[in-house]
Every structure is written in structure tokens, then in C-alpha cells.
Predict the 3D structure of the following.
Amino acid sequence: MRTYPWVIAMLLSIVSVSKAFDPYVFERTKHEYSYGGYGVIDPDKNTVVRTGNILQELLADSTFYTKHTFLEEHDAIGDYYIDRKFGRLFLWTGLRDESYDGTLLLDVRTRAPLAYLKDTGSWGQASAIVDVSANNVIYEMSWADFGGPRDPVANAKEAEDIAVYDGHTYEKVKFSKVPEFGVSRLSSCFLSDRNEIYDDLGGGLFDVAQNKLIRKKNEFLKDTVFLGCISGQALLAQNMDSKKQGSSGAIYLYDVAKDTVSLTVHPLNIQGWSYRQWLLSPNAKYVVWGYCLDGGGHHIDAVIKDGRLAVFNAVTGKQFDLALPDLLGYKKNDRRYVFAGFSLDGEKFLFHDGKTVYVYDMRDMKISNRVPVPFYPDFIVWP
């Protein structure tokens, strides 16, 4: 019987899903897309020990190939998303500069295939949010999907096309009515172990099963700028219009479930108060500021201005200022630094200069890894 390496890897991952894995980085080509090229990193040696092509490797399996022949030509990878709760890597694939066909789901540790979700759209609009409760539902929806027409018949018709999937079976979830709540990385998040979602644009906290608003936004929330949310912990900025003259702005951590502010910070020497400058780490332990941390568009690098960052402890509010050129021993303007997200455990943030991948450990407040890579990094997966 023929055995494929990814099958063995998947079985091993089931036995020990918590076991650490080797980091890897995808290659960005001159066309600004990846075509599946990647390099596996040995974090102890700080070197790329193996390179490969994920699409070519998967298509070498005849069973996978039969179901996904379109990946031979529709092989551009343009967007990524890591589902940290259930250990999945989302790769949106399609035709370069035209549209994507859907999402290739891989085990984030082993890169073994899990499913392919067919849901076409324009590049730059790819999005996925996973219900972090036991429901394990995958929402791949745009704002146009929410609320729906007032006419019941038209609403039911639109509900049939909603791109929502059961995360256990990867079958489409059937709706009789378009959900009232919105699902967006920039305006909403699911609460852990509760069948609820906070939707800032939608006006508050919703019960998912009942599809209704159960708690409206309070006056404090109405007077803040929503920057992001992780498992029920929302990062907010003070509305600058309400700031007293001469005072510094404030950043808040808001516990959605408890409906209380758990942290208030007045950052020092900080400019920029939008989601492009502020991020909450995936474990909600740290708040990171930089100008900027989000490129603000499809395939626009998040170049950190002057290599300057600030990290805030989400419990104490203590601020740590970082100057990457000084930290790395480089001249101030001899290279640009691109913010590349966080590690899976949320304890580290990642960045690169086009030739080297850097890992900054926020627990020790120091660079833990410098890894030269043989290509321009597109997306980095680090345990």
C-alpha cells in the first residue's frame, strides 16, 4: 500500500497536537504572490534546512490531484490566516490578479491537507473568522452577507449562499435567515466557550444561536475607536475628539463578557490611533504599537517607520520602547523592517527585512532568532 508523507504527518499531529513544530516561511515572488514555495526553519540553528512547494507536494498525491486539478493552473496564493484555536492554516488560492477560487485548509503544524472550501471572490477581500467555542464554525463572509433583505423570501434565498462551514466536517452550514451580526477581523470576535459574538459595527453582543442582539454597546464603547478583538478581549482607543487639550490619548482593554475595562494605558511619545498602528497579541497578553503594523491594502507591506515599536504589558500596562536598528546593531536607515505578525503562542512577534526573518520574544524583551532566508518572505508561521 502506498503511503504519503503528509498522511503520516497528519496522524502524528493527532497523537500530539501540542508538540512544537519547525517554523516555516512562504516565498513571495516578483508577482507579489506565492506559488507554494516555502522553507522549513531549524530554530536552534537559525537556518533554513529544507525548501519545497506545498502545492506541488499535495498534487503529487493522486487522490488529492483528482479533486483539485484546478490548482495546477490556479496556483497563486494571495492571502493567509491562522486559526490558532483549532490549528489550521488558511491559504486562499486562485488566478493571479483576477480572483481566488476558495481556501485550502492545512494542518498548521504539518501542512497536511484538511479541506478545500469553494468560495470565490476578488483578491484583497479574502477573510475568515473562526468561532472559538466548541461550535468550531468557520465564517467566510463579507459585509454584504449580513442582515440581508427585509423580504423573507429574498432573505432566505440569500441565506442559501452564505459561506459558513462546519469546522468538524467542512460541510456548508445551512441558514434559513441571514445572520443579524457581522463577522469581520476588524470589527468583531467570538467569545471563548460561549455561543456569542461581539460585533462593534453591529451594535453590541449577539447570541449566535438565537441570531439576535442581547446587549447593546454602552456609552463608553460608543465613545471609543475599535482596534481589534481576541477571544472576547477588545482593544480600544480613546476618541481623539473627546480627549482633553494637553492630555495624552488612552488605550483600553475591554473584557466583553464582563462588560468592564480591564486596563487603561496612556502611551508616551506615540502617534497614530488606528487599527493600522495597534495590535493585540493572539494570547491577549501584549499590545504592540508601530507605524505601521498593517499595510492597509492587498500585498502592501507593513513597513515599520524608522524601525520604532512599543510593546505594552496587557496586565500592568508597562511600556517598552524598541528601536529595531539599535536592537539589531544596524544603521538607522540602511534597510526597511516589515512587521509579519505573531507566533502561534502569541508570545513573540515577527518581522523581516526582505533577507532575514527576526523573532522578538516579548517575555524576555529580546531577539530570540535571526534567520537568513533564500527568498523574500511572504508569510511566516512560527510556533
Notes: Residues 127-217 form one domain. Confidence is low (pLDDT under 50) at residues 7-18.
